[in-house]
UniProtKB/TrEMBL annotation:
Gene Ontology molecular function, alphabetical: DNA binding; phosphorelay response regulator activity
Gene3D superfamilies hit by this protein: LytTr DNA-binding domain
Protein name: LytTr DNA-binding domain-containing protein
UniProt-listed SMART domains: LytTR
Keyword Transmembrane helix recorded: no
Species in which this protein is naturally found: Spirosoma oryzae
Recorded superkingdom: Bacteria
Keywords: DNA-binding
Domain HTH LytTR-type: 10-113
Length: 119
């Protein structure tokens, strides 16, 4: 992954405005009008913005939408698993994220094209 993508600039109440490398963002999950940002070092941040606000700030070829409330960094995906409700993505961090039934075929196609071992 190229490291020249601009960092994500976030305002944190405790420390003010800070920049975070996009490559370290593992996934984002929406909860109402807030978003949980989950980082590689295990840090989680609850931010007062929706996924719709953050998604355009991320490189579209690095991130993939799994569900209406979840966007994940492809770099951290280890495997896919099909279930009755859609599917599950297993991440290298140990997390498991649901894939909606509607997005399953698109997600699978996009991931298999760049990661043949998922097939």
């Amino acid at each position: 992954m190229p490291a020249d993508w601009p960092p994500l600039k976030l305002y944190l109440r405790e420390s003010g405005r800070q920049s975070f490398p996009v490559a370290d963002l593992v996934y984002m999950q929406a909860v109402a009008n807030y978003s949980w940002l989950n980082w590689m070092d295990g840090k989680r941040m609850l931010m007062p913005r929706t996924l719709k606000y953050y998604t355009p700030k991320l490189p579209s070829d690095w991130f993939i939408r799994l569900h209406r409330n979840c966007v994940v960094n492809r770099r951290y995906i280890e495997r896919l698993e099909r279930t009755e409700t859609g599917g599950v993505v297993h991440l290298s961090t140990g997390d498991h994220l649901p894939v909606s039934r509607r997005r399953w075929s698109t997600v699978r196609r996009q991931l298999v094209s760049i990661m043949p071992h998922l097939n």
